[in-house]
Amino acid sequence: QVQLVESGGGLVQPGGSLRLSCATSGFTFRWALMRWYRQAPGKEREMVAAISNAGEITDYVGDAKGRFTISRDNAKNTVVLQMDSLKPDDTAVYYCNARVFNDNYWGQGTHVTVSS
Q: Is the sign of the CA dihedral 31, 29, 67, 11 positive or negative?
């Protein structure tokens, strides 16, 4: 059974940091392209960051560049999103995604609220 379980969300003030983790099981993690997506209220889900299966290539979208860092531990089957300099516009539900060949897996999401 495939599982992706996100954690680390919460309420943070503007300028603060959060570290999101995604623990996975049920598939071959080292084969997976791992991504973080987010969905803000009333908006479509959008990709935030991606990391290749061996971790040597990362990609960021929009203003996540320079503020967010994606990393993975293939020994622990986890992927992490370090988010710094958070803004109110970062408020969203953040989802972990794994793509293994033609299969796409999603976590249940973790809420991030950036507010003073």
A: positive
Q: What is the rounded radius of gyration, in angstroms, for the C-alpha atoms of the chain?
A: 13
Q: Tokens 């622990």 correspond to what residue?
A: 76
Tens of pLDDT along 50-95?
Answer: 999 999 999 999 889 999 999 999 999 999 999 999 999 999 999 9
Spatial contact of 69 and 50, defined as CB atoms under 8 Å apart: no
d(CA 23, CA 115) in angstroms, rounded, equals 27
Angle at 62 between CA 28 and CA 100, to 5 degrees: 15
Q: Rounded to the nearest 5°, which phi and psi values hold at 78?
A: -130, 155
Give 5's strand partners: 23
